[in-house]
Amino acid sequence: MPERPQPDTANQRPRPPSPDPPPVSPNATQDAVVVVPGIMGSELYDTEQDRVVWGLSDSRWLLRAWTLPGGLDRLHVTPEEREGRLGRIRARRLLRVPAWSPVLRGVEPYGALVRTVTRSAASPDAVLEFPYDWRLPVAVNARLLAGAARAHLERWRRHPAHTAARRHRVDEREGRLVFVAHSMGGLLTLAALRDGPDADLARDTRGVLTLGTPFRGAVAAAVILNSGRGAPVPLPHGRLRRLAATMPGLHDLLPSFTCLGEGADARKPTPSDIVALGGDEELARRSRELHERLAAHPLPGHRAVIGVSQPTAQSLELRQGVVVPHELSYRHHGDGGLMRHENGAPRRFDVGGDGTVHKESAALTRSSVPFALQHGSLAKGEAALEAVTSFLEEDEHLGPPQAAARLGLQVPDFVAPGKRWTLRVHGADGPAGLDCVVEKVAEESAPGGAFRVRAALYGDDEDDRSGGGSGDALAARVAVPSEGLYRVSLDSGDGAPLSQLVLAGADGPPAEAEA
Known about the structure:
Layout: E1 32-36, E2 42-46, E3 51-54, H1 59-67, H2 79-82, E4 89-94, E5 99-101, E6 105-107, H3 111-120, E7 127-129, H4 138-157, H5 160-166, E8 177-182, H6 184-194, E9 205-211, H7 219-226, H8 235-244, H9 248-251, E10 260-262, E11 265-267, H10 271-277, H11 281-294, E12 302-307, E13 315-319, E14 322-326, E15 329-330, E16 348-349, H12 359-362, E17 368-371, H13 382-393, E18 408-410, E19 414-415, E20 421-426, E21 435-440, E22 452-454, E23 458-459, H14 461-466, E24 473-478, E25 484-491, E26 498-504
Parallel strand pairs: 1-7, 1-8, 8-9, 9-12, 12-17, 19-26
Antiparallel strand pairs: 2-3, 2-4, 5-6, 10-11, 13-14, 15-16, 18-20, 20-24, 21-22, 21-25, 23-24, 25-26
Helix pairs in contact: 3-13, 4-6, 10-11
């Protein structure tokens, strides 16, 4: 058998080794990011008394602030501050620990949001945290935000990491601004871009992501201003009302939409209505003017992350000076006329919300991302943080991600230690697959031995009957052992757990009553 001819390799060049696959380019944005917290979301420092007056990491401080005489006095807005003489109170940083307030309930810290934003930025230097004195008018803080954002963008464009990041982005575009704003922070951002001193700021903004922003206000703000009128209430509610009556920032969150029911009609609240329920007429007038100025202006590249499926006050009645909130809202036809039944009565709809801001106030446009999350948790929930990451890293708008399951959680805001209270879950066929836990929030002063208990959910026939027999209501009876701040968590295994904060305090003195 003849031998197979051997290849002549003498004059052949050696083959180059197989090239390694190209490295994966970093998917970090070249933009400058500004994180804007919500109401009560900034730590406040009293420069005259050299102490923190909002944001301490100790639930004993919360109890003293909300139940002892004078506990909130330093937070009241003074006549001098209303005239623009500022500096007594300084916002030092974003909230680092959970806080609590009646009606608004839990205010979660912003650490998870800032970490999420930083992971998607080209450098930590690209991220600006903007704390502000949330007691003051939105317009005042918006001017400060506009100046801080402009300075931040100019610094970042000179940064070496900005130059490097551009090489990995479409068209190697120069960095612009991106705002990530929670709650009231979105209203500040809108005012800074559309009503602020920097006319070019909107053009230099790539996008704005808002988390539960009450663009048209919230009925909860009216409830706060009226809390305790005509009936005894726990001490914290009366204290909050007296504080809120001095705060321009709270008045700027008053509802500017049709929400005041009057028999067979409904209308927008007027400054006179706000006075009748316990607010300040001048602050209410300025709030109305602010909302009128901002109403016709869209946000550049806006995407709204909104909370849904939570029981939320959406309208109100005013009965002899007492606010009666309702979890129902009004709607209008295209010509502006109120939608009505055949008998002329206004039609009402339960559109839900995040427990504080109803759905239709949180969305300026249809470009919104709904999640079944509470208001305070929208800046902390895993699903919402994934939406933040997607928004920051995209070079092109790909549309919002899918919504999470439609569960709702309802808890009281203030409870007594040792006394049983009821939490409710909406939107569930039954307790199977649901894990509901009540646990004490860990503190620096007491990091170990925290209380933790699973709540046994059962069919809530009473709530089901009052809600029209939908068959999707569950409840649990719970008691906590001591004073402090507690977190109620509801996990269905879908990656988007719900949570809400509850403050437990002593009964005595149990109530305040005011005419």
